[in-house]
Structures are given as C-alpha cells and as structure tokens.
Design a protein that fits this description.
Elements lengths: L5 H34 L2 H7 L4 H11 L7 H13 L4 H10 L5 H10 L4 H25 L22 H36 L2 H9 L1 H15 L6 H6 L7 H13 L2 H10 L2 H21 L1
C-alpha cells in the first residue's frame, strides 16, 4: 500500500466538498443560461435599450439579473450586443454584473455562506455600484470603435427559424459545452483553494487576512488567478471564512466574475486593448475601495 501524507487527504476532502457543493449550481446556471439565450435574442435587447447614456448603463447593469450567464459565456454576448448597436458602456456594465446579480449566483452565495443573506447582498450591491461607475466612466472617456474588428458581419445574424425541438437540442448542446468548459476551471480552482488552505499555515493566512488592504489585494489576486465560474466561486470564498475578513471575501466575490484570466483573454480577443485596460484598472480600483468600506 502507498501511504500518502495526512495533509493530502485533508486537501482532498476540502477539494471534493467544494466540488460537490458547487456543481448543482453550475449545472442549473448553465441550463438557464442556455434556455434564455435561445429565447431572448440580442435584437430584442437592442430594441429596448434606452438612448440616454446614463439610463443605458443602468439598463445594462440590471439586464444581468435576467441573464444567468457565467462570466465564461458573457463576452461573446456583449460582442453581439455591441454589434447590434448597444452602446459599449451599457455592454460593459452588463458584462460586469451579468455573472453576479443573477438569481442562481446570489442563491449559491446565500447557501455557501450558511444561509446568510448578508454576503449575497454585499456582493450584489458591490457589483451594481462598480459596474455603473465603470460604465459611466467609459461612456464619457472612451470614444471610437470598441471592437477589434472593423467590419460588421451581417450575414451571420439571420437566425434561421428553428423548430422547438431543434431549439431544445441546441440549448442542451450549449449547456453541455458550457458545463465542460466551466468544469475545467472549477476543478483547477477547487484544487488551488484546497491546497492553499491545507498547506499555507493558518497563522500566515490569518495575518494576511485581517489586514484591510493586504487581504483585499490577496483575495482579488486569488480570484483573478483561479478564474472560477461565478456560480461556484462562493463555495471557495466561504472556505476562507475563518481566516479572511468579510471585506476581502466580498472583493473576491465581486472582482472574480468581472476580471479573471479567462475573461481577460476573451476581452482582449474581442475589444480594443485600450478599452480592456480601462475596464481592468477601473474595476480593480473600485472593487478595492468598495471592499475597504465594508
């Protein structure tokens, strides 16, 4: 028999518990997102988007509540919206809140933190404040073409009229693809979180975790590196509950879905680099300040 060190089993337990808790939410989220994408088209949203820049940003912010898209799938949606004439500021506001203020994510946050609404509320509030501010700043300071490519593909946008059976089949396919692409990140994230909690001395974690500024920076960096799915990240944050301050956990929960490795790569492929850098720096500063206020 091979004897593995005890700490390894301990890590394994943390890892499995994070996975088991979060998977149902990922599955529910993926399906709802798939269904909504089939039935709510970007055209419909573009039609009802207000013309006033401030209202457009607010509208974009709350649009997220209707689209339970994980941040993995949201960049392409924003690209299509902007292609249909939605102002970039509203698109960005939607991109930032979409993965956070939807019911699936807030409910998973509520469950992860032992059925306590406080964390979910801080998270939703933070998402709204940050994305409205980022959206407005971008509305005023970013001029020019937001997208990388100049040409607009018109011929792609004719959605053939699909039968309901085809629609359901596509929803299923979409959900399964999304699930596997998210699953990879979730597993890596759960492993890193489990390893951090097992192998970093609790004393070190507590020391970092109680410093107002340092704890937020560490948690935001962790959120960026882990690139979790917003439907599952609350379970990982809650596993740091005993060592990290509430403000820094909120920073993790607000920043992670807005800016993480996979999201940034997708944004760089879609938007002008200058715009992406604006989004990242504004979001980081605002989330940081917000976390200090909690």
């Amino acid at each position: 028999m091979i004897f593995l060190p005890n700490s390894f089993y301990q890590m394994n337990t943390v890892f499995i518990s994070i996975l088991i808790e979060s998977l149902p939410f990922v599955i529910i989220g993926v399906f709802i997102a798939g269904i909504i994408q089939m039935f709510v088209t970007e055209e419909k949203i573009a039609k009802i988007m207000p013309k006033n820049p401030i209202l457009a940003v607010l509208f974009g912010t709350f649009l997220g509540a209707l689209f339970p898209a994980c941040e993995c799938g949201i960049v392409p949606i924003v690209k299509r919206l902007v292609g249909k004439g939605v102002p970039i500021s509203a698109g960005i506001a939607f991109m930032l809140t979409g993965p956070i203020i939807n019911p699936v994510v807030l409910f998973s946050t509520y469950v992860a933190f032992g059925s306590d609404w406080r964390m979910a509320l801080y998270r939703a509030l933070g998402a709204v404040i940050v994305s409205v501010l980022v959206g407005l700043i971008i509305a005023y300071f970013f001029k020019g073409n937001p997208l990388k490519t100049k040409e607009v593909h018109h011929h792609h946008h004719h959605h053939p009229v699909l039968s309901i059976r085809k629609k359901i089949w596509q929803t299923l396919q979409h959900a399964i693809d999304e699930f596997f692409s998210m699953g990879k990140y979730l597993i890596i994230g759960a492993l890193i979180a489990a390893a951090a909690q097992t192998y970093l001395k609790t004393a070190t974690l507590v020391a970092i975790g109680q410093g107002e500024a340092s704890s937020s920076v560490v948690m935001m960096t962790l959120a960026f590196v882990l690139s979790l799915c917003s439907e599952a990240d609350a379970f990982i944050a809650s596993s740091f509950r005993s060592t990290f301050s509430t403000g820094s956990l909120v920073a993790f929960l607000v920043f992670g879905p807005m800016i993480d490795i996979k999201n940034v790569l997708m944004m760089l492929g879609t938007f002008q680099t200058k715009l992406v850098l604006m989004i990242i720096s504004l979001t980081a500063i605002l989330v940081f300040v917000y976390s200090l206020l909690i």
